[in-house]
Amino acid sequence: MKLVVCIKQVPKVTELPWDEKTGTLRRDLASGMMNPACKHALEAALQIKENHNASITVITMGPPAAEEMLREALAMGADEAILICDWLLAGSDTFATSLVLKEAIKKQCPKFDLILCGAYTADSETAQVGPQLAEELDLPAAAYVEKMEITGKTLRVRRLVDNFRETLEMEFPALVTVSMENYKPRYTSLAGLENAFDQKDVSVLDAKSLGLSSSSIEQKGSRTRVRKVFLRKAQKGNVVLQGAASNVVHEFLDRYQRKIGTVIGKSIEEKKQHDDK
Amino acid sequence: MTTNRRKSIWVFGDYRNYYQNRVTLQLIARAVALAKTINAEVCALIFGHEIDEWIMEYTAHGADRILAIDDPALKSYSTEKYLAIIERLARERDPEIILIGATDFGREFAPRLAKRLKTGLSADCVGLDITEDGLLLQIAPSFGGNMLAEIVTEFHRPQMATVRPGTFKEIPHDYERTAIVERLPLMKGLPKPRVRLIEYERSVEKEHTIENASVIVCGGRGMGNKEKFKKLQELARLLGGDVGATRPVVYAGWAEHNVLVGQAGKHIKPKILFSFGISGAIQHTAGLGEADFIVAINKNPQATMLKMADVAIVGDASDVVNNLIKELKKRIRE
Ligand SMILES: Cc1cc2nc3c(=O)[nH]c(=O)nc-3n(C[C@H](O)[C@H](O)[C@H](O)COP(=O)(O)OP(=O)(O)OC[C@H]3O[C@@H](n4cnc5c(N)ncnc54)[C@H](O)[C@@H]3O)c2cc1C
Ligand SMILES: Nc1ncnc2c1ncn2[C@@H]1O[C@H](COP(=O)(O)O)[C@@H](O)[C@H]1O
């Protein structure tokens, strides 16, 4: 069986600077890690491989630094790694990203049985790339998958969506996006990691090798445009209290205990100390 | 077919969790406001079986037109069936805008629909507006703390967005309202779905919901550690409320994921919100749309959360929690 896992490198820090001019993230400034949901997807693929004699190709579209994450995936047990790297593709929205991933999959592993994506990425959290890739490749698909069973050519998945537990079935080839409920990623040893750096190769593709020229990217690429990014203004003119915590709390309650009492349906009052012990 | 058909804003009718989640009504309300600016009508889509209840609800809450397909084959939600139906309808009728609630279903369905219609989609908008040149302005939180991004889909139609439940306020119902209700037959020749629904049931695990609490005590990274964070529980209990948390807190395991407040979590609307040691990043505050009265405690006087508060307490979060507990125990009369 042939499995493809789409993985993405995301910044380790959550607060990243913006390029005010282009409205995109300064990804160059972040050291990256494998997006957690993608890592769960890879783990799911590894478990399938253990039981079903499968091979795993991991693919990412990203900057040159994403190679490190691909090496980590190889160390975890992936067989082959592909990096799609081209400045022409920088700033792609999900529409464009899924198109590029499709071209790479068609070129490098057209005979796949199952594509696994993370349910969402920590940095953009759109959860759009997986479902859009399924459209590009015209595949049956399910998002937020927690469990998979394979019998012959049939994939059975379980998932929880909007409070409904669902069991779905579909035939290969298919696509799933994997949630973080199950499939806890395995630990990779340092030795394994070093091995992956020495032994296996990462294939690098650019836009041209995928048959995408700058004009076709313009035509077929991103549909949305970020007009600007801005800081949100604070909303309220407020009362500021400052000082020792006990004083502040007294002052706060003296002023607002009525209001709080009404909301919680209890009376709150400063108790007069009658006993002078 | 009329040639000069009025522009239309479509709202996908996501009704299966209607009693917990009124995102469709909220989107209809926002669509009504947007429609005024671009002189459009608001059209709600309802696919299912025995759907008269929803036709009535969406009409009463502001839709001008309802496109309804009532058929036993649509008894349960199906991404593929709905995709095929809306794709056809959209090609026939050319909606200007399609809005979809960011439920799990909506978030799986919307990106595929956008791809089929070869148009753009922005996820999890916290605001929607119309630009000077009549485009849908999609305001979405951007990675990087307090930033918001203004996104437009300039050259493709429809313009599409998903919106988190709780972002907009619904219009109060008015059962006197009328709408044009078009009941359409299920189209012929739709492709057979390739995903088979074997089993489904409403989850029995009781969802812990903080959405309806009237007091919420929210804690962030500034609470310092798990032990100190636990104190919030005691304060919440005294106030008959619930505890909420920010993402770092959930990641650190101080609180469960089901109390996460914000873009990726719950949208809350408490009468009183306490916010302890929270910076006020947009992804968090996106979930506070309807908090009436905010009391924020932060040691940094410049924190955004303090600026958003009705009462801003500059100080150590844990100290304030402990003193509040002590003082409330003295003052509350049962
Ligand atoms: C796609 C995406 C989705 C996200 N979704 C969510 C979401 O749904 N919900 C969410 O919450 N976050 C979300 N985030 C994360 C969000 O951007 C912020 O990182 C997060 O809200 C910050 O949490 P915090 O305020 O607890 O921590 P911090 O930003 O670290 O702030 C801690 C605050 O505590 C104060 N403090 C420190 N010590 C003390 C003390 N002793 N006493 C008083 N104050 C103190 C500090 O001054 C600071 O203001 C998301 C991020 C992304 C990228
Ligand atoms: N640049 C990328 N390269 C490879 N896979 C990606 C990329 N972006 C998104 N994905 C896949 O799509 C999933 C959802 O991403 P997102 O739509 O950004 O939330 C991720 O978990 C990945 O599996």
Oligomerization state:
heterodimer
SSE series of chain A: EEEEEHEHEHEHEEEEHEHEEHE
Structural class of chain B: alpha/beta
Query: What would the CATH topology of the largest domain in chain B be?
Result: Rossmann fold
Summarize the biggest pleated sheet of chain A.
Answer: 9 strands, mixed
What is the fold-level CATH name, i.e. the topology of the largest domain in chain A?
Rossmann fold
Low-pLDDT stretches of chain A are none
Task: Please report the two chains with the greatest interface, counting residues with C-beta closer than 8 angstroms to the partner's C-beta.
Answer: A-B, 81 and 94 residues
Biggest β-sheet: strands ordered side by side in the sheet of chain B: 5-9-4-1-2-3-10
Distance between the amino and carboxyl termini of chain A: 81 Å
In total, how many domains does the architecture of chain A comprise? 2
Descriptive overview:
Chain A has 2 domains: 220 residues, 3-Layer(aba) Sandwich (Rossmann fold), CATH 3.40.50; 41 residues. Helix content of chain A is 31%, strand content 29%. The model of chain A has no long low-confidence stretch (mean pLDDT 86). Chain A has 277 residues and is α/β, with parallel strands linked by helices. In chain A, strands 11-10-9-12-8-1-6-7-13 form a 9-stranded mixed sheet, sandwiched between helices. The termini of chain A are far apart. With 334 residues, chain B is of the alpha/beta class. Chain B folds into 2 domains: 178 residues, HUPs (Rossmann fold); 126 residues, Rossmann fold (3-Layer(aba) Sandwich), CATH 3.40.50. Chain B has a 7-stranded parallel sheet with strand order 5-9-4-1-2-3-10, sandwiched between helices. In chain B, strands 13-12-14-15-16 form a 5-stranded parallel sheet. In chain B, strand 7 and strand 8 form a beta hairpin. Chain B is elongated, with a radius of gyration of 22 Å. The N and C termini of chain B lie far apart (67 Å). At the A-B interface, helix 3, helix 4, strand 9, strand 10 and strand 11 of A face helix 4, strand 5, strand 8, strand 11 and strand 15 of B. Flavin-adenine dinucleotide sits at the interface of chains B and A.
